[in-house]
């Protein structure tokens, strides 16, 4: 099977590895090829397996709004055939190896993931290199993938939570790409062409805009050499930034009701513009939103809405983690919307005005620092953490420094974050269910018809 | 007998077969304890599973095991509502509970120097819960809201109705969350009764996985659970209760949906049948991935559907093999069904190819390695395997059984179980628009 790839691996081009071998206590290494491709390797020899992810730092945020869905479709199509191997053959090889694999995109990145037995590492790297460097975007596969994306877009309208969330995004982000789902919608997907995918791939998939993460039963030196051999010749390209959404702050809360008489519960989402994942307030904001609306059984919102009043099964709030500022969102599903909204509004206002208590912050410190090692005890967890630290530029020592950064965050910083980043009375709000304006008693708000 | 390739994998960097990392013992009160040693990360997963779930429920109080699960997070003689989460959050532990057909489980994933805390909390949950009326009322409303989430998802309605027609009498017909009317009528007395009947060491399995030492585990488990009184629970056995189907059953549901869903099922044998694992092999050949027969026939060749998947769901009693298909439109459903049934005939009459069979076997062997990536994952496999089959080794033995599967067994299985009379069909399609 390996021979299938002999033709597609381009000749080895010598390259300088700007090695930044780990000074950490962890077997974690970060290397950079002279073309800018970053390689992160985490050696973990417990099991004879390896996880590989290839990430391009361009996702749906780069789509033109009228053709939303290009990045997502491009990522899907990476696994649908290359210039030398068909989609069927690719799937046949991977399935025969017992591999797990998928590709996709988010607003911030496009990725391919592959898990296989360590003995198949070489084949896995061959496949990753081929699909990233030589995608063919064959027409029959493109037509099929676009139809699948359309079906998924249509199906999302059958899910009340998705409908509310999509409407919230549309109202909050206006003409920005964030207004539409990553995969696009039923208006934009049909407009996407194969040429769009070629252009996106050609422009964004350049080595200085990409990184590869390898975790598992591997040796750092081997990975460094094997990746360099397959990607060293790859030519640098221009890298651009996506355009951030303009923050909006309505003078008073704007509310839209979507009437659905067939539902026995009301679905609600409200919030406002958020912050970038690169914001220096990120950790104070994460601690604050955890206290406000993290775990439904112990956060302030959870206690008020679920535990004390029995108004909902799930209630929470969070700030999107995106390179460009996303949203602050709060959600609930309830048969008693008036009561639930009043309590949630009250908790946001209280946090904004009075902040957290020392006891709450201590608990949040303990939760974040105590649970952090659990998130990367598995290979999959390590891969996820390494993807994030590279994508958001947290630094190679993030696994070791994050707990320190959390512990160093003061109550003053958390309360300042609450004051600055929560904006009560300036919400966008979407409500879907068998309700009317009169049922909700929302007071002085602007209704969106 | 394991094949050479499996033996090779087991002797590679795993160092030794999985069994050598597992130890077990039983307390005098009947609590069964299984440990799995993996010291590669400073993490321990503590899991306690009770032999109670929707399998044990009768009409009138379906979902009561799930209601009880919610209530066990509330109040014990020493812990107040919210304490479980407050205490575990404050040490950075992940925890949750869940209810299934055959079991109710709770877990804590926690740092290795704190895992004793999980035992302390679980021992309190096992024996010292109290259920004040006032706390029951608000949690009852929470569960009612959880049930409403189910009502508002059309695919959930399809699943619920499908299982109900697939099982005339077997408890598999009841949703784990309970039927709406039953959920509305729970009483705190019933919750107390359910707790008294099912929560005790003789009806539980404790699985601890991660950076642990057997002697330490034994001492700590004895300390927290040793004095709890065990009361063996005789569980009803419904293994053979479901009558042989006498003909096809079919339900068509019209809801406010944009995309149709086609669900086809066939009753398949439970774990007491030596061939039961063959159902997994057939489902994989027919519907797992791009190279599966139904994906090729329905998505690639005829372009009638946009997705296909298949799986065989058997935990203990006879279950179902499912085929789930997204038709491109409602009108194509009859053609899709015909193609599915043609493929089923083909698998009865023609031996599967060696490559198809090897693909399935390789996948199972690789999964055997992959599933050990996470100690919580391995704990789940040990616990569920032990609860549903009475032996945690079952999930390991299943790998060897798949390894030995033959084309002849596959034909025999399909001939016996994948027949027209045993077919269940569920269809979810958009509501018809009323003419103006």
Q: Estimate what percentage of residues of chain A fall within beta strands.
A: 15-25%
The strands making up the biggest β-sheet of chain A line up spatially as 1-2-3-7-4-6-5
- Tally the beta strands of chain A: 13
CA-based gyration radius of chain B: 23 Å
Uncertain spans of chain A, ≥5 residues at pLDDT below 50?
1-23
Report low-confidence residues of chain B grouped into runs of 5 or more: 1-15
Give the averaged pLDDT of chain A, no decimals: 94
Secondary structure elements and pairings:
The complex is a heterodimer of chains A (449) and B (436).
Chain A: E1 17-20, E2 28-33, E3 38-43, E4 49-56, H1 70-78, H2 87-96, E5 100-105, E6 110-117, H3 121-133, H4 139-156, H5 160-173, H6 194-204, E7 210-216, H7 220-231, E8 254-259, E9 266-273, H8 282-293, H9 300-307, E10 312-319, E11 327-334, H10 337-354, H11 358-375, H12 379-391, H13 398-407, H14 411-421, E12 428-433, H15 437-440, E13 446-448
Parallel strand pairs in A: 3-7, 8-12, 8-13
Antiparallel strand pairs in A: 1-2, 2-3, 4-6, 4-7, 5-6, 9-11, 9-12, 10-11
Helix pairs in contact in A: 1-6, 3-7, 8-11, 8-14, 9-10, 10-14, 11-13
Chain B: H1 4-10, E1 22-26, E2 32-37, E3 43-50, H2 64-71, H3 83-90, E4 94-99, E5 104-111, H4 115-127, H5 133-151, H6 154-166, H7 180-184, H8 188-198, E6 204-210, H9 214-225, E7 249-255, E8 261-268, H10 278-287, H11 293-301, E9 305-313, E10 319-327, H12 333-349, H13 354-370, H14 375-389, H15 394-403, H16 407-417, E11 424-430
Parallel strand pairs in B: 2-6, 7-11
Antiparallel strand pairs in B: 1-2, 3-5, 3-6, 4-5, 8-10, 8-11, 9-10
């Amino acid at each position: 099977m390996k021979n299938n790839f002999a033709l597609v691996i381009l000749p080895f081009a010598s390259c300088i590895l700007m090695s930044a071998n780990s000074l950490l206590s962890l077997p974690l290494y970060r290397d950079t090829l002279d073309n800018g491709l970053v390689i992160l390797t985490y050696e973990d020899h417990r099991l004879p397996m390896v996880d590989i992810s290839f990430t391009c730092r361009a996702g749906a945020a780069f789509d033109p709004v009228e053709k939303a869905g290009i990045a997502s479709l491009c990522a899907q199509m990476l696994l649908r055939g290359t210039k030398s191997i068909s989609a069927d053959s690719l799937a046949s090889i991977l399935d025969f190896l017992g591999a797990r694999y998928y590709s996709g995109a988010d607003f911030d990145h496009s990725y391919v993931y592959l898990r296989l037995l360590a003995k198949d590492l070489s084949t896995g790297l061959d496949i990753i290199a081929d699909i990233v460097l030589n995608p063919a975007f064959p027409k029959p596969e493109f037509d099929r993938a676009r139809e699948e994306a359309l079906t998924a877009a249509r199906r999302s309208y059958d899910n009340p939570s998705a409908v509310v969330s999509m409407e919230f995004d549309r109202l909050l982000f206006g003409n920005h790409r964030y207004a539409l789902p990553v995969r696009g919608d039923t208006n934009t997907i049909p407009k996407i062409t194969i040429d769009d995918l070629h252009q996106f791939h050609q422009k964004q998939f350049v080595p200085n805009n990409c990184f590869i993460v390898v975790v598992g039963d591997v040796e750092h030196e081997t990975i460094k050499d094997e990746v360099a051999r397959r990607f060293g010749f790859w030519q640098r390209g221009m890298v651009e930034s996506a355009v951030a959404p303009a923050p909006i702050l309505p003078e008073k809360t704007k509310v839209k009701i979507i009437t659905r008489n067939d539902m026995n519960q009301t679905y609600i989402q409200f919030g406002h513009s958020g912050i970038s994942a690169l914001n220096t307030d990120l950790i104070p904001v994460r601690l604050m939103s955890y206290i406000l609306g993290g775990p439904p059984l112990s956060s302030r919102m959870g206690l008020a809405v679920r535990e004390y009043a029995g108004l909902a099964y799930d209630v929470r709030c969070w700030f999107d983690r995106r390179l460009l500022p996303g949203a602050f969102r709060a959600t609930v599903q309830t048969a008693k919307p008036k009561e639930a909204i009043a309590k949630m509004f009250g908790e946001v206002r209280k946090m904004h005005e009075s902040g957290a208590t020392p006891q709450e912050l201590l608990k949040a410190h303990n939760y974040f620092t105590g649970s952090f090692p659990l998130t990367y005890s598995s290979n999959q967890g390590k891969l996820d953490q390494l993807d994030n630290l590279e994508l958001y530029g947290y630094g190679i020592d993030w696994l070791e420094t994050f707990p320190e950064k959390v512990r160093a965050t003061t109550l003053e910083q958390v309360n300042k974050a609450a004051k600055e980043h929560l904006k009560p009375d300036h919400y966008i709000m979407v409500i879907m269910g068998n309700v009317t304006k009169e049922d909700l008693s929302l007071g002085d708000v602007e209704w969106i018809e | 007998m394991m094949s050479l390739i499996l033996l090779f994998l087991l002797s590679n960097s795993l160092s030794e077969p999985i069994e050598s990392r597992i130890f077990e013992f039983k307390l005098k009160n009947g609590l069964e304890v299984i440990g799995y040693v993996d010291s590669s990360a400073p993490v321990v997963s503590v899991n306690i599973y009770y032999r109670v779930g929707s399998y044990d429920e009768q009409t009138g109080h379906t979902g009561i095991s799930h209601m009880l699960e919610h209530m066990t997070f509330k109040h014990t003689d020493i812990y107040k509502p919210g304490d479980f989460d407050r205490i575990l959050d404050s040490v950075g532990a992940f925890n949750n509970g869940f209810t299934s057909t055959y079991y109710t489980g709770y877990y804590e994933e926690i740092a290795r120097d704190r895992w004793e805390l999980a035992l302390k909390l679980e021992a309190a949950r096992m024996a010292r819960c109290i259920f004040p009326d006032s706390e029951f009322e608000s949690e009852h409303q929470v569960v009612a809201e959880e049930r409403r989430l189910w009502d508002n998802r059309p695919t959930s309605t399809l699943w619920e109705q499908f299982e109900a027609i697939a099982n005339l009498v077997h408890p598999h017909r009841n949703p784990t969350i309970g039927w709406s009317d039953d959920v509305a009528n729970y009483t705190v007395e019933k919750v107390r009764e359910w707790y008294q009947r099912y929560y005790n060491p003789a009806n539980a399995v404790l699985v601890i996985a991660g950076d642990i030492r057997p002697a330490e585990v034994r001492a700590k488990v004895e300390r927290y659970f040793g004095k709890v009184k065990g009361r063996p629970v005789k569980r009803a056995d419904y293994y053979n209760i479901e009558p042989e189907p006498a003909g096809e059953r079919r339900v068509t549901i019209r809801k406010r949906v944009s995309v149709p869903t086609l669900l086809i099922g066939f009753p398949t044998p439970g774990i007491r049948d030596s061939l039961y694992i063959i159902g997994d092999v057939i489902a994989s050949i027919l519907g797992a991935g791009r190279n599966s027969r139904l994906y090729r026939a329905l998505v690639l060749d005829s372009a009638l559907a946009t997705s296909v998947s298949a799986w065989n769901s058997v935990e203990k009693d006879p279950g179902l093999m499912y085929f789930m298909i997204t038709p491109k439109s409602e009108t194509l459903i009859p053609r899709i069904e015909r193609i599915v049934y043609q493929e089923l005939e083909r698998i009865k009459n023609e031996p599967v190819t060696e490559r198809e069979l090897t693909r399935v076997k390789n996948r199972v062997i690789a999964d055997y390695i992959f599933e050990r990536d996470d100690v919580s994952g391995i704990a789940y496999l040990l616990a569920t395997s032990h609860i549903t089959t009475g032996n945690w080794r079952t999930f390991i033995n299943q790998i060897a059984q798949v390894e030995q599967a033959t084309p002849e067994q596959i034909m025999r299985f399909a001939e016996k179980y994948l027949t027209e009379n045993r077919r269940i069909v569920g269809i979810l399609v958009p509501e018809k628009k009323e003419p103006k």
